[in-house]
Specification:
With 352 residues, this protein is of the alpha/beta class. It has helices spanning 9-20, 30-43, 82-95, 112-125, 140-149, 163-169, 176-189, 206-219, 245-258, 268-273, 277-283, 319-328; strands spanning 46-49, 51-56, 99-104, 130-134, 153-155, 192-199, 223-228, 288-289, 332-334. It binds S-adenosyl-L-homocysteine and iron/sulfur cluster. The site of iron/sulfur cluster has 9 residues, from loops.
Length: 352
């Protein structure tokens, strides 16, 4: 097996180009085998469960790919009250969840004080739970305050590590430089950090995906979020095709090879483009799922892309169904906090 650590960006791009011409629906090839071996070495057959709470659909950013972008006047905007959020946590806790993920658009209503009070409200009631934030770019002082208030982890996908590609996905006011700075600040503060990107976003090439891997190797985050791009009808990318299942699975496996102890979700977007997407993601090296704990009546309004699954096995109410599907894929749903295994033990010897 090639040591991905030793490959240059150009060689990684060649590998991606070569592999994408060899569809491997049964995931039997050496890359997938190695990805499964490594996830087994670090996490056994566990799949960590995270309860996702989509607490605001307001967003002041204008990412071209996202249905929540400021420019989408048709988006339905909502903001959950503290009591509603605590109710989601209470329900989630009773179901067994020990990680809550608070995700939302970049919403100025949740200023430093308000968001710290919310974090404190959750952590003081459920101190045994990990709290993950996914609220976009903020000043370092805010990240510090959220961490001091009790937030443990932070998800902020870099979206594309190629500056020109990043610029084709975002307005000029949003830059890769600023995104990277946020990620390094989060890491320095002591969060478990998650970066990541969409597969098949408009204009994306194998070279861009290779840059994403090179950036991940450099940042070495504890979590990586990877899912297919899926178009939303009220965005500039409405007519663009969705990212492919095969390429998403390949990028998941390559990420596992590069960062063996990474916490790697099999994303809702992957489950939304293919009926078996979640299970295939797990077989490609993913080890986390994030069912939806948001109140059912707001789920449709949190529309990042069209056709997003939020019911059945994607939702907390369908937890028995999801656990059963995980079991049938050969894994075990695990409701513990599920911290990054790299904290607990030294890494195994490098991949040969
Ligand atoms: N506002 C926060 C969190 C919400 S968006 C943030 O941007 O970090 C969470 C993720 O959804 C984004 O990082 C993006 O990669 C993904 N996303 C947005 N629009 C999407 C689309 N059309 N298809 C697939 N994923 C999308
Ligand atoms: Fe806002 Fe996040 Fe969507 Fe960008 S991806 S428009 S920051 S919700």
């Amino acid at each position: 097996m090639t040591n991905l650590y030793a490959l240059t960006g150009r060689e990684l791009a060649a590998l991606i180009r070569e592999q994408r011409t060899l569809p491997d629906p049964a995931l039997k090839g050496p890359i997938f085998q190695e990805a499964r071996r490594l996830r087994g070495e670090w996490y056994g057959d566990k799949v960590y469960m995270r309860g996702l709470i989509e607490f605001t659909s307001f967003c002041s950013q204008d990412c071209f790919y996202c249905g929540l972008r400021r420019g989408n006047r048709s988006a339905v905007r909502y903001r959950l009250e503290t009591d509603q959020i605590l109710h989601c946590c209470r329900t989630g806790y009773a179901l067994g969840f020990r990680t809550f993920v608070l995700q939302g658009g970049e919403d100025a209503f949740f200023d430093t004080h308000t968001l710290c009070a919310l974090i404190d409200a959750v952590k003081s009631r459920w101190p045994d739970c990990a709290l993950t934030l996914s609220v976009g770019e903020r000043p370092k002082a805010d990240y510090n305050a959220f961490h001091n208030a009790g937030a443990d982890r932070f998800l902020l996908r870099h979206e594309s590590a190629d500056p020109l590609h990043f610029a084709r996905l975002h307005p000029a006011s949003q830059t890769l430089e600023s995104r990277k700075r946020c990620l390094y600040e989060l890491r320095e503060i002591g969060y478990q950090v998650g970066a990541g990107f969409m597969v098949g976003s408009p204009f994306q090439t194998a070279e861009h995906l290779a840059s994403d891997l090179v950036f991940l190797r450099e940042l070495s985050p504890q979590m990586v979020g990877i899912g297919p791009f899926i178009p939303h009808k009220y965005t500039p990318f409405a007519g663009c095709p969705a990212g492919s299942l095969d390429l998403t699975l390949l990028m998941l496996a390559l990420t596992r090879l590069l960062l063996p102890a990474v916490l790697l979700p099999s994303t809702t977007a992957l489950g939304s483009i293919h009926l078996e997407g979640r299970e295939l993601g797990l077989r490609a090296g993913a080890n986390v799922v994030m069912p939806n704990l948001s109140p059912p009546e707001v789920r449709e309004s949190y529309s990042l892309y069209n056709g997003k699954f939020s019911m059945g096995a994607e939702a907390a109410e369908g937890i028995a169904l999801l656990c059963d599907r995980i079991r049938r894929a050969g894994y075990t749903a695990d409701f513990s906090r599920g911290d990054w295994a790299g904290c607990a033990q030294p890494p195994p010897s490098p991949v040969e």
